[in-house]
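Forum: Protein Structure Q&A
Topic: Joint prediction for protein chains with partners

I've read a bunch of threads here and the consensus seems to be that you should model interacting components together rather than docking separate models afterwards. I'd like to see that in practice. Below is the full input, 616 residues plus whatever partners are listed. Could one of the regulars post the assembled result?
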Amino acid sequence: MQEDSKVPLFKKWSHWYFFVIGMLVLLIALFYLFTKQFS
Amino acid sequence: MTTVDWLVLVLTLLGIISYGLYKSRTTHNLEGYFLSNRSMPWGLILLSIIGTQASAITFISAPGQAYTDGMRFVQYYFGLPLAMVVICIAFVPIFNRLKVYTAYEYLENRFDGKTRTLTSFLFLLQRGLSTGISVFAPSIILSSLLGWNIYWTNILMGGLLIIYTMSGGARAVAYTQQLQMVIIFAGMFLATYMVVRMLPEGVGFMDALHISGKLGKLNVITTGVTKNGFNWSDQYNLWSGIIGGFFLALSYFGADQSQVGRYLTAKSVAESRVGLLMNGLVKVPMQFLILLIGALVFTFYQFNSAPVFFNDTQIARIEQSPLRDSFHVAEKAFEKIGQQKKESVTAFSQALHAGDEVQLAAVTDELRFLQKGADSLRTKVKNWINSSQVGGDGNDTNYIFLRFVLDYLPPGLVGLLIAIIFLASWGSIAAAINSLASCSMIDFHRRFSRKQIEPQQEYALSKWYTLGWGVFCIVVAMFTYNIGNSLIEAVNVLGSLFYGVILGVFLVAFFLKNIKSGTAVFWAAALAELIVLTFFALSKYKVLSLGFLWLNPIGAISVILFALLLQPLFSKKENPV
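Posted by a regular:
Agreed with the consensus. Here's the joint model:
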């Protein structure tokens, strides 16, 4: 395994991390609305 | 099963074995056998990670879980994306810098040999047993539904994959998992399409969601808070999912060799990280969709008569017992409710289309009342099956989806879905026995064997370890009997008994740099394991009310606290002034 500095898609790894966490928050919000909508 | 089903099943399984053997070519040393020469791109890493985690029980149990308990099980995965981020930041760069074969190798570097031995041993114990359950779980369901002999089913379920896993190691495992996942997703998509297509005319996908939602099956988000405060024994809610699920995922992906071994095969740190982060992005929606199938199957059974209990083997037992007449009365009452529900759900659908809010509210109340009656009859039957007079297993969660497949799906698709059960099993079992073999070889054989051997001999010996662990898992499966409850839960409970402690050791290693004494960490881990087992026993015997996910943070935090307490004591002994 090579150590490399190039980050795919984003400029920094921290941007990847925020993206993943942001998507989780968004999913939870959507699931909440889904639950409310159909219950 | 029809001839077409058998043909689809046999051809799919033979195709996977042949593909695995075709992809088996690798260098004849440990780097090639266990790490595929660290050459894999992120796409393969992602599918391999998903294929390792998603066993057959994921696809069998999850729809059944949604049918009985609703979709709230998805919350169990909410901690996973957070864990992926932490692993990318803390674990991946260190594993890469030290060029380790196993996660536990790092612990010798950081502490001492005995900490490495203890954690690797806990892993072998936990993973060996849970892989045995992973062989048994789909086998018992298939044998029960199709009348196959359980011993032969265990052998086919756990044995055929050994051919390509033994031959090609991590490379064969990754490539077959890639093909397996494509077939699995295609099959599950087809099954979903068929469920919606088989709903009565005029009832569409959105109507199906409204029906299952009104009957409490689309409870994706639950808080676990009741009028008496937070319910600690509630297994799946937002908080246990985020906190308990985070610790479980962190230990599973960061400290369980069956997963660490997948991303160690990446050709660079970036490929490892992207594979893990993409897993964090797709896992929750994927699990949501699998659970949604269960909610749709539930709606399907509102328009079609559902059995009061989905496992015919257990029905046969109750038929032979003194409770037979009571069961027949309950069965008749359940059928009657089923007929009433069919009328109500049709009225509900019409009111929904007409936008008649008053009628909709009235029919919803009626449906909920009928569902309550149906649920209470099912609970009664389950209790009878569990009773000493029948002595059976009153949980049919794992049988719901496959019962539906066998009863309603067309020939060919039934064979494909049975093949999917095998493929999903093979994906996770192959990765598990590959990792069990790598720990046995790297963490034990290489360190404790006095005889020096050539790389070629190590490669050959690793193949024998793979075979040995494969046979061990089949033997465990043969002895597994009636672990009850949902099988997916049984594997997770077993994992939670050890994962927290293993994770705790890694957290101390990564984040508490002032703790240097291996002896302190070793005893901290031993004491923490004792605490986890005590909590589990108290919960099992109802002294304490605690969901199993909480065992993960308890184990991890106990190791950290004990390590901090014991460090001054042992550092003085190890480094006397």
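The mean pLDDT of chain A is 88.
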